[in-house]
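DM between two lab members

TW: hey, do you still have the MobA-like NTP transferase domain-containing protein entry open?
JB: yeah, one sec
JB: this one, 251 aa:
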Amino acid sequence: MTLPVLVLAGSRDGEQDILAQLGKVSHKALLPVRGEPMLGRVLRTLDATPGLGPVTISIEAPACIRDIAGTAQVLKAAPSPSESVAEALAHIGTPCLVTTADHALLRPEWITEFLGKTANCDLAVGVALKATVERDVPNTKRTYIRLSDMSFSGCNLFWMGTPRAEAVVELWKRLQKDRKRPLKMARTLGFGTLLRALLGRLDSRALCQRIEALTGARVRLVPLSDGQAAVDVDKPADLILAEELLAQRPS
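TW: and the structure you got?
JB:
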């Protein structure tokens, strides 16, 4: 069997996105990276990865990717990433792999490594440890989530293994909806969890256990061996870095 894939290509700003303006394109997903649209690079990588099946793309303006979507199904994106994932899962079901259109450096071996570490969980999140990123991409500035036992950056790879993963997406939707109301977010996560996080005493195991208590889903953080997996193209400096790293790869 092949594994369905969801590619999140949404951008709230459309043509006004700074990267879309930089690339003189109608949407961030079409930004050229070394001459090829980011979304096209991601689709080509997915096609080159063994075991992956039909691809679904979520984007606000489906017409703008008609020329590069190929055989992929295209869904109109919702106002937020969490809502887009929830709506797409209703079409795709589980299991499925989720990634993003701005993951211009994505490599088949990262996907294979990630999927090989998703056993016995309902949802897995690909991450790169801070030390790994600093080793492999010393000239980058990433945003890190700091826990007591690890600091990591996300790699835009998510495994939705069972229907229980949908409950985590619903939790994500609630938190995203309340992102400007910290007190309500704290109530959702639990004040004890928030206090431990603020004091630097929350570890990865406790975090995953708290999510399981809230959703019933077994969640796993999956560290990847290549720090470049944490580099997406989210700002102009990322574009420069991605093109430099791609130039160093064998053709």
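TW: got it. The chain has a mean pLDDT of 92. The first strand starts at residue 3 and ends at 8.
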